[in-house]
Amino acid sequence: MSSKTKVLLTGASGYIGGAVLHEILSLGIKDIHVSALVRSATQVKGISTLGVAAIIFRGLDDVDAIKSAAAEHDIVINCASAMDLNACLAILEGLAIRRKATGRDVHLLHTSGTSNYADHPISGTPDLSIKTDESDIYGWEKANADGWILRKVNTTLIDTGLEYGIKTYIFNPPLIYGRSSGPFNQKSLQIPALINVSLASQQAVVLGRGEGIWNVTHIDDVAKMYGIILKNISEHKSSPSGKEGYYFLDAGEATWKEISEQIARTGKKHGHFKSEVVKQVNAEELATYFIKSFPFLNASMVEVIWGSNSRTRGERSRAWGWSPSKSLEAFRASFDDEWE
């Protein structure tokens, strides 16, 4: 059996997954072998040119293939859908098989997000509190699991990981911006989607008064934390996992009003808008714009993703060597590239 640690990445063709893949390869860790689950011949070609072994599967509903692939690896980095509990459990089942067969420690690095900690400031009560990853985030998510599917996925993965003897790490990036260094999708979600809605409306839009506050972090800085944990594992250094294995990644804050105003300014500068006036819309209106691209969204989810408060602080992440390299000013300067 090879002495190399085998790493499996899901979501390598995506925005976060592609950046994480680039980060993994740039670390130059000698004793790891990297594979990626992909769905098409184009993705196989793109991944293979990077020296990564491609494993074909149908998609996240192909749980047998996911389980089988995970059973051949020591570490799985999951950057695919954070909402698909069945696919995530298939990863853990495969890792449990690997642990039993090799006697080695096995690990799941799972991508979630700070929408978990968002409120409903328009339809409900605003929550301006700041959650840190060194507090009892597991306990809070467990108590509030019914309110947001990602919380249920996180806590179920942690509980199942503890049952199977698998070390789990939950990464919670906030609003991510910047061009990904991955081989395929290099575009984020929240801001580009808001730009597209603004184009359809022929002026920048904001949900309500836009008073909600989110943390922002550049995609390269998000990927950096995955590299830190992977390097620690490869060097047999222990990092907090399980109920203590939450990692927040924050690099400043912005309101949704500020974001929409920046869309308005850069949109006018590039000749897309006649004015810098921002139009207020409600959650139902915004949901109708998104329905073709995101058919699972409803007004309540739209309020969380484009209008809520989601304030976090990565104390544990910083204690384990992470710090953002891109400032809040870099975020403000990124809108020209977002338009492009």
From TrEMBL:
SUPFAM superfamilies hit by this protein: NAD(P)-binding Rossmann-fold domains
Residues making up the signal peptide according to the UniProt record: none
Molecular function in Gene Ontology: aldehyde dehydrogenase (NAD+) activity
All residue ranges annotated as the NAD-dependent epimerase/dehydratase domain in the record: 7-235
InterPro entries: Epimerase_deHydtase (IPR001509), NAD(P)-bd_dom_sf (IPR036291), NAD(P)-dependent_oxidoreduct (IPR051783)
GO (cellular component) term, any one: cytoplasm
Source organism superkingdom: Eukaryota
Annotated PANTHER family: NAD(P)-BINDING DOMAIN-CONTAINING PROTEIN-RELATED, PROTEIN YEEZ
Protein name listed in UniProt: NAD-dependent epimerase/dehydratase domain-containing protein
Source organism per UniProt: Exophiala bonariae
